[in-house]
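Annex B. Sample input.
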Amino acid sequence: MTKTIDGGCLCGAIRYRIDGEAVFSSTCECRSCRRASAAAIVPWLHLSSEQLAFTAGKPVEYRSSPPVTRTFCGRCGTPLTYKTESYGPMIDVTTCSLDDPDALAPIAHLWTSHRLTWVKLETGLPCFAEGPPSA
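Annex B, continued. Sample output.
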């Protein structure tokens, strides 16, 4: 049986479904994610874009840098996805837009070299100065 996870934006205009397991869940502290979300840390699920289907509404796309496209709800502004050309067929989905964000806890902190000085990471999770280590 395939695991199904549902989520959406704050106002409910955008709904999505993820079929199958995410590759991994992590937090990001890079400057770009912080600015896009107005938050110190953004948790993400990394999965195949084929697993993600929007079931209600259509998110707005924003090209935040030449290789990166982010999506969000055009009505309430909730950040939803992050896709960079280097990911190939993979995409990130904001963990806290899930109906049950506790279902997929992060396994690592990424881009900690950009961490705000007042953020203290005492979770015991691995911390990477930049992105995840290469496989």
